[in-house]
């Protein structure tokens, strides 16, 4: 059956290598390119309309059409579309990875994401903060430390209950590995033992990823779903 | 997909009270071995019809989650006086087979004795949601009517005799053998997340193409989100006509 297509989640521990930490599910190709430092800014930027479209593709159109849409400018994210349903869609870049992710500075990374209202209020500010630091030329370590310090100083909000996001874009580029992509939802919780959700066990659809490791007390669980945001089937991992 | 969406919308509208298990807005065209012909169940059937062979029930309960999880879970089986521990676990999860009375109180399958809903509740849910299962089951086994059960559950929450969901409460319902009754058959594999109802938040649920359903309990002050996933607990793919499924 298809079960042999499941990558053992033990192998997923190498998710630390990956930007949005899903590459472990994307099969075992070695990274062939290293990204030791930030590339020229231009490589991270996109054409505005294309970025809007890509951001909106993170969630089903029924959700993203009424969402606020952000685009990355030279000085941070800017509001391109004012929404009305409380969701906020953006395209995250590699610096939203854990600091020890080798693709942290990969300029090809494009992570379309739609935050639900609690996440827009309590998780999206982390995206703003990290992006601000990246664009200011900070190192990976400085970004992680800056994130941590900002949280400890109360400059970042506490996580709200029910914070989650959609990452179901067929056009995402989450890693250089394999198919580059995985249709999934993300759930943000206070620190939990991953075992509490049965995460990372063989055949479990739940994965605990270290996105905010060392920076902020937020656990991120992801649940792959079988479809892209346009309703077409997504590959099974 | 269309059937799934239709179900989600219709289910939500029709069952304003909606409860967790029924509203999986799944296709009604799938063929399963679990479908029985539509019929009315105005009252509880003889108790024996709800009971199972003990070993069969243990295996069914475990099938709710991947074996790596359920093999170390506590397993409950339904006896004549309520759920009993058949296997003592060690990972904090509790697996059991819900019966029809865990459906919404206005569900036409509420007393359908063929309904079998294997579920593995995680530790926070085992502490905060399982008591609801025990209470509801006790009322059913005591011969209470739906109305009496509804009132008792409402009172129990009002008087804080039943807890609200703890943070992180969730469960697995990924058994290929689950049976929701004639309308939805074995539905699809899914996870469910429980929150206190005042925390009801927007998850983009019940929107076209969304993999998320929301169910509002009544009288339970609980909001439930169900996330369809692509595989059954044994790792096999869910059907292409199921929301979480792929090719």
Features:
heterodimer; A: alpha+beta; eight-stranded mixed sheet; 19% helix; globular; disordered N terminus; B: 247 residues; alpha+beta; 6 helices; 23% helix; 18% strand; disordered C terminus
How would you explain this protein's 3D organization?
The complex is a heterodimer of chains A (237) and B (247). Chain A is α+β, with helices and mostly antiparallel strands. Helices cover 19% and strands 17% of the residues of chain A. Chain A has an eight-stranded mixed β-sheet with strand order 2-1-3-4-5-6-8-7, sandwiched between helices. Chain B is globular. In chain B, strand 1 and strand 2 form a beta hairpin. Helix content of chain B is 23%, strand content 18%. Chain B contains six helices and eight strands. The N terminus and C terminus of chain B are likely disordered. With 247 residues, chain B is of the alpha+beta class. Chains A and B meet through helix 2 and strand 6 of A and helix 3 and strand 6 of B.
Topology record:
The complex is a heterodimer of chains A (237) and B (247).
Chain A: H1 48-56, H2 61-64, E1 68-73, E2 76-81, E3 88-92, E4 111-115, H3 117-122, H4 124-135, H5 140-152, E5 164-167, E6 184-189, E7 207-209, E8 219-224
Parallel strand pairs in A: 1-3
Antiparallel strand pairs in A: 1-2, 3-4, 4-5, 5-6, 6-8, 7-8
Chain B: H1 2-14, H2 54-62, H3 67-70, E1 74-79, E2 82-87, E3 94-98, E4 117-121, H4 123-128, H5 130-141, H6 146-158, E5 170-173, E6 190-196, E7 212-216, E8 222-228
Parallel strand pairs in B: 1-3
Antiparallel strand pairs in B: 1-2, 3-4, 4-5, 5-6, 6-8, 7-8
Helix pairs in contact in B: 5-6
Helical coverage of chain B, percent range: 10-25%
Q: Can you summarize the main beta sheet of chain B? A: 8 strands, mixed
Rg of chain B, Å, rounded:
16 Å
Q: What oligomeric state best describes the polypeptide chains here?
A: heterodimer
Question: What is the count of β-strands of chain A?
Answer: 8
Q: How many helices of chain B does DSSP assign? A: 6
- Helix and strand element order of chain A: HHEEEEHHHEEEE
- State the strand order across the main sheet of chain B: 2-1-3-4-5-6-8-7
Please give the count of helices of chain A. 5
Q: Helicity range of the residues of chain A?
A: 10-25%
Termini gap of chain A = 13 Å
Which chains share the greatest interface?
A: A-B, 49 and 50 residues
Strands side by side in the biggest sheet of chain A: 2-1-3-4-5-6-8-7
Q: What global shape of chain A is seen?
A: globular
Low-confidence stretches of chain A: 1-29
